[in-house]
Design a protein that fits this description.
Layout (H helix, E strand, L loop, with lengths): L2 H11 L5 E3 L3 H9 L5 E3 L7 H12 L3 E6 H6 L2 H6 L7 E7 L2 E2 L5 E2 L7 H8 L3 E5 L2 H10 L7 E6 L15 H16 L1
Parallel strand pairs: 1-2, 1-3, 3-4, 4-8, 7-8
Antiparallel strand pairs: 5-6
Helix pairs in contact: 1-2, 1-7
Length: about 190
Amino acid sequence: MNKTTAVAAVIEAFPEAPIVFTTGYTCRIARHLRDSPNHFYMVGSMGLAPSIAVGIALQTGKPAVVVDGDGSLMMNPVGLLIAGPIRDLPLLHVLLDDGVYDSTGGQPTPSAGVDFGAWARGSGFDEALRADDEHALCTALARHADVSSPTFLHCRVDADAGAPPPRVDADLADHADRLRRHVSGLVG
């Protein structure tokens, strides 16, 4: 399974729930596949996508999803530490682990030696799952569509071949307002 396939599966599984996509190629792929008001694309701020998704889940009390990367999570695991202890936080943290810092030149990350599931469990997540192929990913996403407590899903993916989609060119303030309106509609 490559990163584009995994991002497409998340988008398909969560057509209305807020999804925060980490910076780099992940947000570029998501925007290219389907630009939607429930999507938030991180531009910069590597490692902070989980913190935004935690805030959304806390505000709405409804499922929120973060699609994170191995490099981002290793840079800043604070999202796990914040989310884990909140027993009724409806958060699904999907980690796409391709083993490289793809958007900065493909330098390897040390993710092969990291047990991300243990990080999540140690932070208090109820479940720490793994999906190594598209079928396992789709099954886990369907099973957790109505997530009600912190849940972590580690997906091993291959980097995509070829050139990535173009950079996110949206006006960032307008982009944030679009997500804010969508989130307000969930609690209204």
